[in-house]
Structure formats: C-alpha cells, structure tokens
From TrEMBL, chain A:
Protein name (Swiss-Prot/TrEMBL): PRC-barrel domain-containing protein
Source organism (scientific name): Kribbella capetownensis
TrEMBL record, chain B:
Entry membrane topology: Multi-pass membrane protein
Domain of life: Bacteria
GO molecular function: cadmium ion transmembrane transporter activity; manganese ion transmembrane transporter activity
GO CC annotation terms, alphabetical: plasma membrane
Annotated source species: Kribbella capetownensis
Keywords: Membrane, Transmembrane, Transmembrane helix, Transport
Name of the protein in its database record: Mn2+/Fe2+ NRAMP family transporter
TM stretches of this protein: 40-61, 81-106, 112-129, 141-160, 180-203, 224-250, 270-298, 318-337, 349-367, 379-403
Compartment list: Membrane
Gene Ontology BP annotations: iron ion transmembrane transport
Keyword presence, Plastid: no
UniProtKB/TrEMBL annotation, chain C:
Domain of life: Bacteria
Species of the source: Kribbella capetownensis
Name the record gives this protein: PRC-barrel domain containing protein
Organism classification: Bacteria, Bacillati, Actinomycetota, Actinomycetes, Propionibacteriales
Amino acid sequence: MTMAGRVLHAQLHLLDRQLIDQADGHLLGKVDDVELDLDSDPPVVSALFSGRERIPAQQIAEIDTAVKVVNQGLDLEHHDDWTERHIIDKIPGAGDATE
Amino acid sequence: MKKVLGVALGILTAIGGFVDIGDLVTNALVGARFGMRMAWVVVVGVIGICLYAEMSGRVVALSGRPVFDLIRERLGRRTGLVTLVASFLVTLLTLIAEIGGVALAFELASGVNYLLWMPLVALAVWLVIWRVKFSRLEQVFGLLGLLLIVFAVALFKLGPDWGQLVHQATNPHPVGHESWATYTYYAIALFGAAMTPYEVFFFSSGGVEEKWSRDDLVTARTNVFVGFPLGGLLSLAIAGCAAVLFLPAGIQVGTLGQVTLPVAVAFGKIGLAIVLIGVFAATFGAALETVLSCGYTIAQYRGWQWGKFVRPREASRFHVIMIVCLAIAVLTLLTAVDPVKVTEYSVVFAAMALPLTYLPILIVANDPDYVGRHTNGRVLNFFGLIYLGLLVVASVAAIPLMILTRAGQ
Amino acid sequence: MRLNDLLGWRVIDGAGTTIGGVADVRLVQDGPVLASMQSALRVDGLIVVEHHTTRLFGYERHVGPALLRWLVHRRLGEVWYLPWNEVDDLTDGTVTTGTHRADLKRHEEMARY
C-alpha cells in the first residue's frame, strides 16, 4: 500500500493520535511526540514516541484517524502487563469473556 | 422486540442524564417549587444532547474514535488533561451519588439503613462490570429503568388540572417567594444535567463496544432520537407529579421517599413497588454508566486498552481504574455524606468540563478526515454553535449563582 | 529533533523581523522507501502563524462552522507556508529564513492533498 505524495501535518495528523497494534487491534497508547531527522537528506519523520518508547518510522503501518504500528520489539504494554500480572489476574474470571 | 433492544444504549445513556439519583430529586424539587414553569429547560436540554450525541455517534460509526480520543486529539495533552480532570470529577461525584442512590432505594424497600446496603451495591456494580456482557447490561437496566414511566401514568391518575399545568409551562418565570436567582440556578442545574459530559463519553464508547460501523449510522441516530426524548419525558412526568401533589400544599422535596410518593398516592403499594424497581434500575444503570465512563475517559486520554469487548485481563488498567473509583465511592459514602447533595458539587466541575467536551465534537463532526461526506450541514452547525454558546453562558453563571443562592435555597 | 520542542519556535527573516511562530510541520509522503514498503514522511516545510498557535481547528483545512473559523483566524493572524529549503538555521528556539516576510506564500494556497 503506497500513498505517495499524500500531505500530512505532523501535529494535526500524528500528535495525540491513538496507536493501534496492526496485528490484533489492541490499543497501545498515544503518539506523545514525533521525532524529525532534519540532518538526513531529505529530512524525514524518523520515529514516533509513546511515553518513553520509541517507535521507528519503519514500523508505522498506516496513518488514519488512528496510527497502526507493527508491534515488534516494542514494549508499549509494559504497564498494562504489570497491572495484569500483579492485580487483575489475581481476581477470578479475569481471563473469561463476559456473558 | 429486537428493535426495542437496539435502542437500549440510547435509553440507558439518557437515564444517566435525566433520571439518575440527582435528577430524580431535582426534577421533583423543581416541580414542587416552580410547577411546570421549568419544563422548557428540559426541552432545551433534550434538543442539545440529541444534537451532540448524534454527532458523536456519527463520528464513532464512521471513524471508530470515541469522544475522549477526539478531545485529546483536538485539545492536545495539556488542555485535554484539564478537560479530563474536570469531567472525571463530575463523573466520579455522580458515581458516588448513584451508589448511594441505589442503597437509598433498598432502604425505602426494606427499612434497613442505606449505609449497610451501600458496600453490597458497590460490589454488585463491580460484578456486573466484571462479568456481564455490554449488550446485556444496557438492555436489562435500560429497559427496567423505563418502569419509571409509571410517573407519567400516575400523573393521569392523579387527575390534575391540565389547564393549570399548561399555564405554568407557558409562563416560565418564578412566582411567590421564589427569586429569579434561584429560578436561574435550577434552570442551569437542569440544563447542565441534561447535557452532562458522561452521556457522550458513554454513548460513543458504547458504540465502539457494540462495534458500530458505517452500516450502523441509522442505529446510532435511532438510539439518539428515541433515548433522549424518552429520558426528557420521564423527567417532565416526575416534575409534573410533584407540581400536582406538592406545589399546592407548599411542601419542599429533598428526599427520594418524597419523589416516589405521588406514585404511591396514585396506585398504592403496587405503584410503590413498580416505582422502586424503576428507581433501582435507573440508579443502578446510572452507576454502571458513570463507573464505565470513569474508565473510558482516563483510558482514552492515555490511549490504554479499554472496553468490555475484550477480556478483563487484556484491559487491566481500565478495570483497575473502575475498581479504584468504586472503592472511593464506598469510602466517601461511609462518611455519611448525603448522596443527593454530592451531585450539587459536581456543578462546579461540570461548568469547566461542558464547553471543552462539546467543542471538539462539533469540530470533528465537520472534518471529512473523520466522517467523509457525512459532515454537519449548515443548520446543524448553527444549532451546535448556539448550544455551545449556551453552555459557555451556563458555565460562567453556574458558580456565582450557586454561591449567591446558596445552592438554590 | 522532537516536534514538541520545535512547535512554538520564533521565525525571523533575514532582516531580523519576526514573522511568527511554528505551528506545524508539513509532511509529504514521498521520501525514501522504508522497510515497511512505504515512502517515508518527508519534511516539506513549516507552517508559520502570525500570532498564537492553536491546534484546535485544522487551520489549514478550514474545518468547522464559519463563525468559529472566523474567530480562530482572527486570533491566528496570517498563516504562512515556509518551504524547508528556505529555512537557513534552527537554533535556540529560533528559525531563521532568508525569505522576506512579504514573499512568503499563504498557506491556504497550498494543495491540500
């Protein structure tokens, strides 16, 4: 899927957008900042930041009303996993679908 | 039947705006003090919430983005955080009141003090959130809440002087020893309650829970245009009953028992039983709506996984937020604070939250990036702007009026 | 460089006159092809507004009711597009360009997509 020539605005279309896992649709956080590599030729967007996690531009799969990323080698769900292990998993029924 | 179940989301959302515990008492109080002279406010409120709920429903069906995503995207991190804090506090205070409200309904039915019921109520709310499917939850509590229609039936049974009620409704001004200040204070309180921010949070997130897509635009609209007018109707019926029974006698209303009294007068014990089930369902439904909205807003602001459409462990932080909120509710109520009074304080935060919540919805509903060709028409934008203006005016006036009238006394 | 740092920087022209502040960065998806088989987002230029920076409306696409747009545009003042190749220097919160203020292109004249 190429979208050559598409015009985007870094703040308007990237900043504060929802990050979604391209593979399973899980919500991964917000785009908190955008890294611009101004020294390369041509200057490009080199990464997105969510919290302290850096998402390289190569892993951006789709930019729409949300930003889909390839969730490989990233630790975006660290806090959710921690909460899951230490709190939620201790409550019976945490892994069951609702009825 | 399937059609009826399809609008359960709209009905449950509207219950939180028009007949939750704070509104139940305020509606009856206003009826007892002003008769139907405040009815126009409910009508204005219904139109306003319909406009904005329709926009948020359309945005969610076409783009999948619920309201707090839009707030963060349009207002950014800092102003978004201000909106989050203000609207979260409104929602949390309302949740506290609802838990107390359900417990009060049990007290009325059993005679056992509400403080003993309250922890059980909080536990029951959590169990429903933890185990029950979203669609079932909205259907059960939305439809049971409709039992409050018994107020409308009771109004007929009480055989009021209809001409008198119409006369009141068409003469919207304070009478007797009531001042313009108190009249305006209650008008703003009713308007603010009708457009309370958690309605659009819950409605739009509910759209995601139900996996709305482009094909569900009609469903979204039907929910809006059935649910909210119905909520407004219930609200008017409660005020009408109080206007007939309490206004001539000069009785002030301040408790849930007084709110249900007109139905008991009209239909005796059976009426009372029905109205108590209705009150239970409405307050319990509003408790679900507010506790879910607490989770939705924080999770959507931060981008965390949320929703009942995934297993609890997949949205662990979302579930922890709701558990903490319920714990806060129980602890607050244990101080024996009057649950009905709690909602009055939420007016202060609502003043800040209301314009900041609705502005991003209006803008995004005009943005083809989100809604394609289904952008707002000129008429819709005109009314959207008028209501935004009304919300700003109400916000600015709310706190001074609250101090001036000592919260409507 | 981080976007959040760049936003709000002062833009001055060769004569030292302040033009405005950086409101956004215009990107065009026609950079080098990445591992994801997509073109990189190339930094095409800066969007500079005369007075205040606000993000609310998507100033460049004129979205929203006319009255609100009018209010916002009064607050923003002029909105200009400063092509990247006309940016001479970026240091200490200031963007310097050799282009004179009068020669800048209005942003509304830019292609939207």
